Amino acid sequence: MNKTSASAKRPATVMVEGREITVTNPEKPLWPEHGITKLIYLEKLALLSPFLLKHCKDRYLTTIRYPHGYAGKSFYQKNCPEPKPDYVRIAENEGISYIHLDNLPTLLWLGNLACLEFHASFDRISNPDYPTEWILDLDPSREEEPRIIEAAALVGKLLESLKIRSVPKTSGATGVQIVVPIQQKYTFDELRGLGQFVGDYLSSAYPQLFTVERLTKNRGDLIYVDYLQHYKGKTISAPYTPRARYGAPVSTPLKWEEVYAGDIKPADFHLLNIGERLQRYGDLIDLEQPQDLEHVLSFIHAKK
Fold first, then answer.
1. 3 lies in some domain
2. What residues contact 95, with CB distance under 8 A and at least 6 apart?
3. Which of 12, 191, 274, 281 could bond 23 through an S-S bridge, CB–CB 3.0 to 4.6 Å?
4. What residues does 168 pair with on adjacent strands?
5. Where would I find the DNA ligase D polymerase domain in this sequence (predicted)?
């Protein structure tokens, strides 16, 4: 082994919030086409941390690990790996020791393990029966879907007509998710009823664009309005999580005016430019106050 390769594999040590974190293989390429090594990835995670941690705290965390970079083999991780540092907190649920991602050292420890995606549960650790947001997932049936922003705009207009304030966000992959911050007093079943109402309307009003068909093989090229995913025990790509795809995309909240203008696409937001956006806009989800949905739920109930 020559000196260069030996140096590249030599562990590095960083101090974060008084904790010593060992970075193994710091020059290991994780997104090689974009020059993102493990060390650069950890720097980007630190930049994202004030936002990403906020949306993972008090949630059960599932990560996806890519030991050989985003294009290599991967595996899901729910149980906390051992040995774990003493700063890593655990949340037990149904026999699984989930990591409670609530501090920067834990985030960087996971980054060193090549966790490239962070998926947070809809249910909260502190109050699992009542979510703090309602989410619709617009899921394309094909890998490239040029209509996804158009579809999100139609959902946004519908929610506006129902006097529901929402924030669109890219999934970081091909889809868009509509996040509705809510007062913590509605059950998952109540919100599923609202989701079904919206999904049925969209698939009826725009049958060439939307479907509520669960089976992928029966959807054709339609965009699936997934209201069933929002449920206790299920997860979503956390706001500001990176995704293990070409281009190092990041799940990014959007402004509705960006969506209505129609000149953006999910791939526009990635690890190499997300810092500038966060500095400019901050956390767009934070700008919406939790809202009461009683006016819509009572209307749906009256129609039954």
1. no
2. none
3. 12
4. 178
5. 46-284
- Domain containing residue 271: 133-303
Peptide bond into 253 cis (omega under 30): no
Q: Rounded to an integer, what distance in angstroms lies between the CA atom of residue 256 and that of residue 45?
A: 26
Cα distance between residue 210 and residue 225, in whole Å: 7
Which of 267, 239, 248 lies closest to 118, judged by CA? 239
pLDDT tens profile 216-249: 999 999 999 999 999 999 999 999 999 999 999 9
What is the tally of structural domains in the chain?
Answer: 2
Cα(2)–Cα(134) distance, rounded to whole angstroms? 54
Tens of pLDDT, residues 111-136: 999 999 999 999 999 999 999 999 99
